[in-house]
Amino acid sequence: MTQELAQAMLNGSRRALAQLLTAVENEREGVDQALAALFPHTGRAWVIGITGAPGTGKSTLVNALAKAYRAQDKTVGIIAVDPTSPFTGGAILGDRIRMRDLSGDPGIFIRSMATRGSLGGLARATRDAVRVLDAGGYDIILVETVGAGQNEVAIVRTAHTTVVVEAPGLGDEVQAIKAGILEIADVLVVNKADRPGVTNTVRALRTMLELGHPTARRLISHHGQRLEVPATNGHDAPLWLPPIVQTVASENKGIDELAAAVDQHRRHLEAAESLDSMERQHIEIELEDRLRESLLRRLLERLPADSVQAVIERVQARTLDPQGAVDELIAQAEDGI
Amino acid sequence: MGAIRVLIAKPGLDGHDRGAKVIARALRDAGMEVIYTGLRQTPEMIAEAALQEDVDVVGLSILSGAHMALVPRIREVMNEHGLKDVFLIVGGIIPDEDKAKLSALGVQGIFGPGANTEDIATFIRELMEAQGT
């Protein structure tokens, strides 16, 4: 069934694409084989992550950016992630409200995804969902993360270009210096740039960038001379200094500049042969994730049903420590069969 | 296996969407994933969103009285998109004489202004269970 969906999607069925995304989200039986069949068709799309604090205008920006790419005749797949309620398991996925302009365009496919308990700003299935859209032939895939704080950085493991969106008045300069989300930016956007305080925000971000990239290309005044220091990142590849783009997404302002900045980043990666090493890194992290999940699943399958409960009780009674419990479970699974 | 996915849409020209938001919130609290699309959706927009989001149920909120124009059209476009098996429920002020007509057109549930939100969630869950067997 899932295999047939994969074939139908490759033949251009949007309904099959949507159902395949559901199969991926629900880990439906047969989805691994379907993904394996699709894998040779992937690797063509450019994946752009859009992240940033809630209220910075990510959805509106995705809407505007998608239109800009459509104007370049590129097809666009969009995955918009919103949080699942930790209490009920339900979710309200509202990103489409800001993307109504994209309706009716067959070159666009929008899918909302709930995090379903996953941390890091993406859903567990996001990576595979991106792959499905990639195999579906979309040239550009925009992944909008949940409204992210300072640590929702999982997007860098999926995206080629990560766009971090800020808005004036959200954080002071101290926020900008903090590690985390700003450090993952390949392109920084100050959206809502028609609001007061935009100059301060841009200045704060620039300060952060200069601090975060001490090896960056900079001009040093030396006896009145200006010297250019070529920057390196350790592999003799030229360093990428994230540009800061000002936008007013709701009025389509600065959007072409943003698309140009993303394009420039892409050409930078391709020219510096950084793309290969980035992809290798992505694969390495993904394999590690999958290995961990598969091993855990197999281990749990081999354990008698009540053994986990039994050690939980002993840990709670303080007669066994947590790591001791883990060692015991592993030992049990090993002699189990 | 996965969460029940519901599209809540407001077709037509109604000026506010408070009721739709209340329903969206209630269904979320019932553990469903609710895709909310906002005001003034055309039948084509609704069917397209239902297709892309692969929802199990489409819930329409209509207060304007235009339900006899909008709902049959939405069902028609959904069917054209291959979404015959996606349930359609309608909330709003629907006179009794229209209810039978809508049911005959392939509307599985109709809820009036006084409807209890928990009943709606239960209704959806029962629809899903009946389909699953």
Overview of the molecule:
The complex is a heterodimer of chains A (337) and B (133). With 337 residues, chain A is α/β, with parallel strands linked by helices. Chain A has helices at 2-10, 14-25, 31-38, 58-71, 126-135, 173-177, 198-212, 255-271, 274-302, 307-316, 322-336, and strands at 46-52, 76-82, 91-93, 108-114, 140-144, 161-166, 187-190, 219-222, 225-228, 244-246. In chain A, helix 2 packs antiparallel against helix 5 (126-135). The longest helix of chain A has 29 residues, at 274-302. The relative contact order of chain A is 0.11. Chain B is an alpha/beta fold. Chain B has a single domain, classed as Rossmann fold (3-Layer(aba) Sandwich), CATH 3.40.50. Chain B has a 5-stranded parallel β-sheet, sandwiched between helices. Chain A binds chain B through residues 14-15, 18-19, 21-22, 25-28, 84-85, 88-94, 96-97, 100, 103-104, 109-112, 114, 116, and chain B through 1-3, 5, 24-25, 27-38, 41-42, 44-45, 48-49, 51-54, 81-83.
